[in-house]
TrEMBL record:
Key words, A-Z: ATP-binding, Cell membrane, Membrane, Nucleotide-binding, Transmembrane, Transmembrane helix, Transport
Upper lineage: Bacteria, Bacillati, Bacillota, Bacilli, Bacillales
CC annotations in GO: plasma membrane
Alphabetical list of Pfam families matching this protein: ABC_tran, BCA_ABC_TP_C, BPD_transp_2
Name recorded for this polypeptide: ABC transporter
Domain annotation ABC transporter: ranges: 333-580
GO MF term (any one): branched-chain amino acid transmembrane transporter activity
Main location: membrane
Keyword Iron: no
Topology within the bilayer: Multi-pass membrane protein
Subcellular location, record wording: Cell membrane
């Protein structure tokens, strides 16, 4: 069914609801359902897409209610008050995100709990302003001078809920949703594709806080009265249960989750004293039986069934190759005496490295010799303890990964870092992050400009998939591919950033013999297109066959550098490898 038709049907159902259920009790219930849904839908974006946890959303709900309520009490028109409430919530959300940026998992949850409790205490104790437990009486909500009675206030909430649904759904299916999801899957991979992870986390928090504030404001005017007892920790848990039980990260999850958290208490009202026990039980049951939530679980079953019907074929582009991806001026990397220490231990010890033009440089060495640490320094994951990295004459020593990507250096990962919830095509499209021009408004409104840009980058991503020989896998979930294919997707995603230097960290690890051939073929094609490659690889035959120059590390120090023939016969290199299983390959290779 066409999306607009679905929305039209929903709009009609919402419009006729008061006629179908002509009782103020049901209309009141519908109001409550809709504003709760708005909060859960926003929280789903934060938890389900961006992978951040909030146990303090009741705090934003409260801020929305108090700011909007107090503004109208002070004589500000209702709509303007609502806008102010939402904007202040967005600011508060951004602030909480910034304060909790370094925290992850349980620590982030603790920051949000602290925020929720702080708001609850202020609401309770600052009685002169909030009314505390005695509550706050509000004037009737008015639109353009007209008072909103029960039914018209319901319609008002319904319109807002529909608009929020459309906008959030647009966000889900835009570059923004993709970026949030990618960040939730692997922050480091998103960063090396050019995503400024900190800013995107703040944005996700701000949007989610906005919707929570909107829900709170709409709640406040439902009875023109509310008190501080509403904004408890339980409330935050309830919203989160809605997201998880419905299916975090799914588009229909918030609707199903809200049905569970909103309607269930109505049905078991006589058991109010046990409501936390009931919700705890539902959450536990859901996590055990349906870890992806109700919608996620159903989707998984359908996906498994549909597997046999094959992947939908995507239009093949007319030509291929990253040479079409923009002009390049070649690599120019100069590493001077770079040192990386961990608690005094030198993993990399004063290495110098120069990479210019479009050469393929091998970086080899026995296990623990410092190759991955070097790659992490060059891609901005680690800041060297000492020394200097310069790129095209610019000092990039302390550049974070997204700035390295913007400068033209990106990488793949030894331990694959694909965005497993995205399709193969979406993974590659994410690589174009730095090249998208349409902003938030265009993405959330799905403007014609946004649609043009999406189809342009979809075609570009298809070109790259064709380039690595995976065009027919475009519609598949990245996690469903073989190891070797996933490595090729990582290469395609890295190429999408339009790098001048591509760092490949063990691209053949885990790949089959056939896949290794493919990977070597792709490496050669990348080189031919003018991109320099730094290749870290244990398969010596690959290194000896494709590299122009090889740098050898041992115990964090550079012990040799030269062409493959020179390296093969270098006594120090042979000694470093002696006893290791690679030595035979090195000599034979
Ligand atoms: N984050 C870290 N903290 C402490 N020590 C580390 C860290 N990362 C690496 N090391 C140490 O630094 C040394 C070099 O490690 P690195 O992973 O760079 O080697 P490598 O050459 O990539 O090894 P491999 O071929 O096994 O991947 C090792 O002794 C390792 O234990």
């Amino acid at each position: 069914m066409k999306k607009w038709l679905l929305y039209l049907l929903i709009a009609l159902a919402l419009y006729f609801f008061p006629w179908l259920f002509p009782s103020s009790y049901y209309v009141h219930m519908a109001q409550g359902f809709l504003y709760t849904y708005i909060v859960v839908a926003g929280l789903n974006l934060l938890v389900g897409l961006s992978g951040q946890l909030s146990l303090g959303h009741a705090g934003f709900y409260a801020i929305g209610a108090y700011v909007t309520g107090l503004c109208t009490v002070a004589g500000v028109p209702f709509l303007l008050s609502l806008l102010l409430g939402v904007l202040i919530c967005a600011g508060a959300g951004g602030l909480v995100a910034m304060l909790s940026l370094r925290a992850k998992g349980p620590y982030l949850a603790m920051v949000t709990i602290a925020f929720g409790l702080l708001v609850e205490i202020v609401a309770n104790r600052w009685v002169e302003v909030t009314g505390g437990p005695a509550g706050l009486y509000l004037p009737e909500a008015k639109l353009f001078g007209l008072g909103l009675g029960t039914v018209s206030y319901y319609w008002f909430i319904a319109v807002i809920a529909l608009v929020v649904t459309v906008l959030i759904d647009n966000l889900f299916t835009s570059r923004y949703g993709r970026t949030f999801r990618a960040m939730g899957n692997s922050e480091v991979a998103a960063a090396t594709a050019g995503v400024h992870v900190r800013n995107w986390k703040v944005l996700a928090f701000a949007i989610s806080a906005c919707t929570a504030g909107l829900g709170g404001a709409l709640f406040a005017f439902q009875n023109a009265y509310f008190n501080s007892d509403t904004f408890t920790f339980d409330k935050s848990i309830l919203f989160l249960v809605g997201v998880i039980v419905g299916g975090a990260g799914t588009r229909l999850g918030p609707l199903v989750g809200t049905i569970v958290i909103f309607l269930l208490p109505q049905w078991v009202q006589s058991l109010y004293n046990y409501h936390l026990l009931i919700f705890g039980g539902i959450l536990l049951l859901s996590l055990i039986a349906l870890p992806e939530g109700i919608v996620g679980g159903i989707q998984r079953i359908f996906k498994q069934r549909n597997q046999y019907s094959g992947t939908p074929s995507l239009p093949a582009p007319d030509s291929d190759g990253p040479s079409q991806m923009g002009s390049r001026d070649g690599a120019d990397l100069n590493v001077q005496a770079a040192v990386m220490e961990f608690d005094g231990f030198r993993a990399v010890d004063a290495i110098d490295l120069q990479i210019k033009g479009s050469e393929v440089r091998g970086l080899i060495g026995p296990n623990g010799s410092g190759k991955s640490t070097t790659v992490n320094m060059l891609s901005g994951v680690y800041v060297p303890t000492k020394g200097k990295l310069s790129w095209k004459g610019v000092d990039v020593t302390s550049f974070p990964p997204h700035r390295m990507a913007a400068a033209g250096i990106t990488r793949t990962f030894q331990n694959l870092q694909l965005f497993h919830e995205l399709t193969v095509l979406e993974n590659v499209m994410l690589g174009f992050h730095l090249h998208y021009r349409k902003g938030f408004a265009a993405n959330i409104l799905h403007t014609p400009g946004f649609l043009r840009e999406e189809s342009h980058f979809r075609a570009e991503a298809m070109r790259l998939l064709q380039f690595v020989g995976l065009a027919e896998k475009a519609g598949e979930q990245a996690a469903a591919l073989s190891y070797g294919q996933q490595r090729l997707v990582e290469i395609a995603r890295a190429l999408a950033t339009k790098p001048d230097l591509l760092i490949l960290d063990e691209p053949a690890a885990g790949a089959s013999l056939y896949e290794v051939d493919n990977i070597v073929r792709v490496i050669r094609k990348v080189k031919d297109s003018g991109i320099a490659i730094l290749l870290v690889e244990h398969h010596m035959e690959i290194v000896m066959n494709v590299c122009d120059t090889i740098t050898v590390l041992d115990f964090g120090k550079k012990i040799a550098e030269g062409d493959p023939a020179f390296i093969k016969n270098h006594p120090q290199v042979i000694e470093a490898y002696l006893g290791g299983e690679e030595v035979t390959k090195l000599v034979v290779g």
